[in-house]
Amino acid sequence: MAREQNEVQGIIPVDKPKDWTSHDVIAKLRGAFRIKKIGHSGTLDPMATGLLAVLCGKSTKLSDPLMASQKTYEMTVRFGVTTNTQDITGEVVKESPLPEGFGKEMLLKVLPEFKGEIEQLPPMFSAIKVKGKKLYDIARKGQEVEREKRKVTIYDLELIDIKDNEAKLRCVCSKGTYVRTLAHDLGQKLGCGGTLTELRRTKGSFLTIEEAFSLDEILNWDLERLRAEAEKNLEKAMNLLAKAAKPVLLAFAALLIASCAPKAEEKVDVYVSIPPLLPFAQRLAGPDVRCESFMPSGANPHQYEPSPRKGAGFYDSKLFIMTGLPFEKELAKRAKCGKGPKLLDLAPEEADHDHEEEGHHHDPHIWLSPRLMKERVQDMAAALCELYPEKKEEIEKRSEEIKEELKAFDEELKETFKDGNKVFLVFHPAYSCFAEDYGLTEIAVEKEGSEPTPKSLGEAMEKAKSENIANLIVQPGMNERLAKNIADTAKLKIIKRDALSTNYYEELRALAKNIKGEE
């Protein structure tokens, strides 16, 4: 005769012990308390420890939105060692000497390259399926197959400590991120290999590791204590999310009275107008503050028009960081009338993205200058400190770290262009600030923000020919057909660069190589 199963509703934060699978934890709790329906909101590898949100009853329906939330980890990477699993549980396949000068400064220089949207190649030892077969089953046979790279987002990557050949890092990342692959890729970047030796999840969604219970502690509870803790965390989630007005997770409340709740968008606390500002704002504000770019990646800032849903979300936000783009004007006008968030305008007073005043063009693309961006980071930090005074010390600390990174990056670019003036050809005139900082000359196909006339196009091509320019730099959202016709006619190679990329350092390094004629 089957044992009676118990109904439990809510969330139990468990501090998963090492060498247990996530399924082991669920099976143990299901068996000990005879829970009718139980699951979790994100797998942890056996070697990992830390926060595992166990979902009971109708709360299991929130698995997908909870898994989609940002996660925070503390990770330890051992450099000079490469394993077949990309973590310490695997077989060592290579040992290499550390690069000359290995240490804190070297890591601080490399880490920014792994922030923002990056691509990861899933490890062979993973549960991803290729042609119906799990990769780890293939890997255990000593075989390897082609895998497609996946895009993930690293919101923050901070060095906590370094000792000998091991570094402890704090990583805030999106769903689908392989932290061991991040460790592996860091090692590859340094040329010595790297493998993950420790991993601990410290935050996921609204829960933190400080709120989690050890498995041993939970197993000493009776059923009523389990129910009380699960419901308490559910109530806490409802109260916090109601206060923050985040509709997507207010479904928690509905789950107690319905089997399914409609999905909605989370409330955004801080909007930046364009994608490249997002990593800076998110890093300054910290993972507790939801930041988002108002304009999506790939959009043309001259033609972008917000949807009604996006506009409604804007008025519920707390801060809007502007850069002088056309679509910001109406939003700013309403916000100034008390119908929206506080405004922070990063554009210099003379900046004019409409390019209306012929002969007096001021480039508003200030974010493409590390020197100017350093000043804007200070402005963003001040606005965030005013908004979140309890986080002032953290924000100011992050601000100083970012400004030091930008200062070092500025010096790196100066060294790159120390050999003298370089002339480069672009479709849209976005790089004037960048060019001014490093003694470069930008020739633009567009004139005053508009597509070229036959006369202005002829002048630009004549200048390009006289300078022996071989490349035409084109941004997403521009007139690709016209750019291709120009390139074909002038026998130029089209180089695609994105001035609105979230991969700030990587994008500008790539631009520098293109300008110097390197691939």
Shape annotation? globular
Instruction: Give average pLDDT, whole number.
Output: 83
Continuous helix count: 17
User: How many E-type strands?
Assistant: 22
Structural class based on helices, strands and sheet pairing: alpha/beta
Low-confidence stretches: 242-265, 351-361
The Cα radius of gyration reads 26 Å
Could you give the distance between the termini? Answer: 71 Å
Helix coverage percent of residues?
Answer: 25-40%
The major pleated sheet works out as: 10 strands, mixed
The fraction of residues assigned to DSSP E strands is: 15-25%
From the structure above, extract its key features:
four-stranded parallel beta sheet; single chain; 17 helices; 36% helix; 519 residues
Q: What does the secondary structure layout of this molecule look like, with pairings?
A:
Layout: E1 10-16, H1 22-33, E2 38-40, E3 49-56, H2 63-67, E4 71-79, E5 81-83, E6 92-95, H3 104-110, E7 116-120, E8 129-130, E9 133-134, H4 135-139, E10 150-163, E11 166-173, H5 179-190, E12 194-204, E13 207-208, E14 213-214, H6 215-219, H7 223-244, H8 251-255, E15 270-272, H9 278-285, E16 291-293, H10 308-316, E17 319-322, H11 328-339, E18 342-345, H12 370-387, H13 392-416, E19 423-426, H14 432-437, E20 441-444, H15 454-466, E21 471-474, H16 480-490, E22 493-496, H17 504-515
Parallel strand pairs: 1-14, 3-12, 15-16, 15-17, 17-18, 19-20, 19-21, 21-22
Antiparallel strand pairs: 1-3, 2-3, 4-11, 4-12, 5-6, 7-10, 8-9, 10-11, 12-13
Helix pairs in contact: 9-12, 9-13, 12-13
